[in-house]
Amino acid sequence: NAGVTQTPKFQVLKTGQSMTLQCAQDMNHEYMSWYRQDPGMGLRLIHYSVGAGITDQGEVPNGYNVSRSTTEDFPLRLLSAAPSQTSVYFCASSWVRGETQYFGPGTRLLVL
Amino acid sequence: QQQVKQSPQSLIVQKGGISIINCAYENTAFDYFPWYQQFPGKGPALLIAIRPDVSEKKEGRFTISFNKSAKQFSLHIMDSQPGDSATYFCAASKGGSEKLVFGKGTKLTVNP
Fold this sequence. Notes:
heterodimer, A: 112 residues, mainly beta, 7-stranded mixed beta sheet, 4-stranded antiparallel beta sheet, 11 strands, B: 112 residues, 6-stranded mixed beta sheet, 5-stranded antiparallel beta sheet, globular
């Protein structure tokens, strides 16, 4: 049981490039979320999903897209990277809505 | 508008001492209050959680105290150990919501 996995662990992008951060979980959780973590800002919700085919925006959704075609996978797409998107990104999943979330190890993104 | 305010930002205690981290919330609809622990380079992990129907919950050396009238809750770490050195996040959510709102975090350092 791998839990929540994220790839890549680290990525450097140039301004304007696009990329997809991968997230997968093997716990059959319905709820999945993406957060970004910045120094002194805590964890801020980007997008979340309550099941396959259903996604919604969180607190800071601008510049990011998500889709949920399967229960296991919840990729996060950066459409045109900006330096303000330099951050550590965490994917999380949970069995019960709004409760215990299991976090992945994170993806550290640097946008130059 | 920050819905969960956490203090202090950083905390240094001696081994064997008590670490206390406080959080205050604004939304009276919140009914689930977890604490997450995060070690450097890792994703957050659930430490302990409480619901408003109890005023205190203890798990080993970790205790949550909850004051519904004051809209405050706190984490107490008894007999603090160097291995407890980490960043701690409080959070809150309301029933039926997918959204977990996090505080900005407290970096705890326990000196040997």
